[in-house]
Amino acid sequence: MHRILPTLALAGAAFFSTTPFAASGPFNLVNATADSVTAVAVAPGGSDAFQAVDLGGPLVGGLNAMAFAMPDGPCQRDLRLTFRDGRTTRLSGIDVCRTHGLRLNDVRGRMITPDALAKQGP
Question: Span of the secretion signal (predicted)?
């Protein structure tokens, strides 16, 4: 009995201290900007360990969409998008456990995401 309690305590601590990991379902990206996205890379939130995502070709602007498999990792992710003109944008703190998609909007010359719109307004 005395050996079981420490083992259960360690197992419980390990279970509750682990970082939640994202489900491996598809992640939907809608490009509502006026420019084509030519590359997408994903990293754990706050990290520079980006992994390239195979788009199979550019994601043309104007409400075109594609889905890709999110690499395994934590819920909080950063996305790095590269556009046709070579410009890159980093979208930080996307919770891929709570949302399974992202719409890229271009309002007044700046990129707006749903989270940014909720916090800052258009």
Answer: 1-22
